[in-house]
Amino acid sequence: MPVAGLDELRTKLAEVFDVRAAVGLLNWDQEVNMPPKAADARGQQLGTLSSIAHRLFTDRSIGELLKRLYGPHGLAADEAKLVSETAYDYGRATKLPESFVARFAEATSRGFQSWIRAKKASDFKLFRPELETLVELCRERAELMGYEDSPYNALLEDYERGLRVEALRPMFATLAQRQSALIARIVKSPKQADLAWLDQKWDTSKQWDFTLRLLKDMGYDFDAGRQDKAEHPFTSEFDLFDVRVTTHVYEDNLFAGMMASLHEGGHALYEQGLRVEDRRTPLGQAVSLGIHESQSRMWENLVGQSRAFWSHYGEVLRGFFPEEMKSVTPDQLYRSVNHVEPTLRRLEADECTYNLHIILRFEIEVDLIEGRLKTAEVPERWAALMKQYLGLDVPDDAQGCLQDVHWSHGAFGYFPTYTLGNVYGAQLFEQIQRDLPALWEQIGQGNFCALLSWLREKVHRVGRRKLPAEIVRDATGKDPGVEPYLRYLETKYGALYGL
Amino acid sequence: MPVAGLDELRTKLAEVFDVRAAVGLLNWDQEVNMPPKAADARGQQLGTLSSIAHRLFTDRSIGELLKRLYGPHGLAADEAKLVSETAYDYGRATKLPESFVARFAEATSRGFQSWIRAKKASDFKLFRPELETLVELCRERAELMGYEDSPYNALLEDYERGLRVEALRPMFATLAQRQSALIARIVKSPKQADLAWLDQKWDTSKQWDFTLRLLKDMGYDFDAGRQDKAEHPFTSEFDLFDVRVTTHVYEDNLFAGMMASLHEGGHALYEQGLRVEDRRTPLGQAVSLGIHESQSRMWENLVGQSRAFWSHYGEVLRGFFPEEMKSVTPDQLYRSVNHVEPTLRRLEADECTYNLHIILRFEIEVDLIEGRLKTAEVPERWAALMKQYLGLDVPDDAQGCLQDVHWSHGAFGYFPTYTLGNVYGAQLFEQIQRDLPALWEQIGQGNFCALLSWLREKVHRVGRRKLPAEIVRDATGKDPGVEPYLRYLETKYGALYGL
């Protein structure tokens, strides 16, 4: 017997999700297609649509429906979960006035355009006023949402439920200490990869075709998505049958494009793997950015930088570039893919240094939000931390604090989820190797069916039925922790560099 | 002194226009980018967003503001016009219930997908059920809107204010009679163009580049627009700084792509030429499809098929295809562009036969809407009229009644505006030639500045300040009539075919 009000709630939610899908498309188009002079109008459109979505979702009628439906009502488990997840979102959304949502959306649209210009000119000063506005809006947001201890906790909650800055600090301390120690040994190792062969022109249209091949083999459904080019690769979804990835290909960088496609492909498989019956409801959403990132980083690194993967795709790549690769041995290729070297850019950072890029951003973000750092001091602070963690000098803003799009979107509290993704991903992947004894053999044949099935069942199809830590615990039998990731790094790179 | 309520009205209108822009983008994306499996979700999104736009615009608060603002209030002329045009739209929109708008939007989304499949399979039966639904919805729409004499008049009003089927019949009769007579003489003329040279492979990427060159020279602003590929070329605008055209290029057809780009470019220049200060209001809209089409047909035919145009662009085109065109003389090229021959497809129809394609569709539409024709009978009726007007046998549905996208969008009453466009365009262009004595010399240099300035002043910047017939009358000193178009055809083709 259907419970009164549930259908009405579903209808109202569907409308909200449709407006959010339009916001998603306006954003995707802004980064992929939009002509430059349209920026102001697009900002207004995004402001209006975000505000409408917010207004529809925070309508008192939804609150009343939730009140009627909450508690023991003879709801099926999924129905009860639908109600409680909606109530969680409703509780948070109603803390934000519509005017704030519109101001935030317009500021991020202007922020993005400003960031594009500033990055092009490699001049942080061009972006600073918009960054200032965005930081202030995020602090205002934290006050509106409420928090304990640090306003940064209010922002973290948006991306990873229950995550707190006090929990991140010791975790990041362990990672920083063990990864720094590992890097120090690697840099001194005599067993360095020979990278000279990479210094050639790599035809970008062949690279593009190779990325399409990878996505297809992974199981990405091109009838329910597409790949385009964007400055900063990202994944957008407007429905589980419309999940789009972006990548970039550079003539002087063979690996950047394929790694971006593997990464975004991992995100996209998660979205394409949600349940049809959960569409246009909170249950049909990814549970958190940390879990999302566990998927992208798993495909990009744990799979895409493995020896088995390259035993197969090395030969596929050679088919695209027979002349350029004629003298490269499989071992040299594998070592090149896994070359460790502190670099300025997070996006091209290797597995051993990646988390240090995150920890650097985390420290800047916390200090900006807690008011200990002025926006004008960001480049200087960036340079100091880059020196401290990676021993590098930052030559200009484009390669420094302007390299990432996130702040221009007002996304403070987002970066830590990348490291959480590494941590969750490694823990899940240890379990996958136990559950699928033929895994490496299959990967060595470019066959990812069993892996994808495992992820579909344990992660993708869950949607928001479980919290992030529950997903990891139910799949692996253990609470999330940093040991699997550090074990993975130390084992793999210990062998590679003969430590 | 600002009049109370005007700012409030502007704010509410801006919100409506932003939602409509999102609907526009969802539609554009559907035809340019969207993966096939997303069709259902997109239909729902379009339904929801259209319904929201309708709900916002028909909100009682707008009606109350209009009542307060209507009449003598010390409003400036533009402000008064803004109010009266909004009142006109409001009066029509409030006749349509929100549920009808949502049903219509969903039906057109499904209709479009079904049309794509049917056209691919060249099987009208696959599209018939959706066409049936759309015809019924259009009849329902006519009843809701109200009409005199014919329900088709209610539909015409949407595309060309004040146009009536009773006015079209005699106009179409004159055109059909005079154009048929002209064609009969042309077909028998011994002075036929030598088209053998066209039967080659024409590299589509070179064609694409040529279309970009044409758009640029016309004055199309690529910083406020872009060109993409689509099955059926169209123009979309989400703001006057975001006006996008589409075209198609075929390896076996040198002229189709460039003519489509000139045509859509003409539409786009109109939209890019609206006034910034009219943005997000009815004044910042094109006044009618007939005037819109006068712009596209002027660029495509009156300019783009002229001897002066080809004296310049023939050499530009030769630069793209030096081998393929090495034996083609300028006169042969000009005659090839203007080759007259009854064909099955409207989109490739020449100037002399084009209106007959429209009259055929008009007759089918009127009979469908007035209930004298069943949807199942459309292919048969199409074939009969094609035989009657153009003497051609229709071999299959793809080349027959499935060739156009319009019906799949539920756009009945749209086709006649193409012929109105020819008629308005020729009348305006006669005046332009009087006003700009150096016109042909400039066109012969690929210089369209003076022409575009004339159009900007007399047509584009007017927006909805005047009705279609007023625009023509104010620019030319005469009421709109068919004589200028017939005079143009008979003079040009009389000379070409030595009649």
Short characterization:
2 copies of one chain form a homodimer. Chain A has 499 residues and is an all-alpha fold. Chain A is built from 20 helices and 3 strands.
Query: How are the strands of the largest sheet of chain A arranged?
Result: 1-3-2
Largest interface: A-B, 36 and 37 residues
**Class from secondary-structure proportions of chain A:** mainly alpha
Query: What is the percent of helical residues of chain A?
Result: 55-70%
Quote the distance from N terminus to C terminus of chain A: 65 Å
- For this structure, the quaternary state is homodimer
From the 3D structure, determine the CATH topology of the largest domain in chain A. Answer: Neurolysin, domain 3
Helical segment count of chain A: 20
Topology order of chain A in helix (H) and strand (E) letters: HHHHHHHHHEEEHHHHHHHHHHH
* Beta-strand content bin of chain A: under 5%
CATH class of the largest domain in chain A: Mainly Alpha
Largest sheet features of chain A: 3 strands, mixed
Give a structural overview:
2 copies of one chain form a homodimer. Chain A is mostly helical and 499 residues long. Chain A has 2 domains: 6-146, no CATH class; 165-496, Neurolysin, domain 3 (Orthogonal Bundle). The first copy, chain A, is 63% helix and 3% strand. Chain A is globular and about 70 Å long. The interface between A and B is large, with 36 and 37 residues.
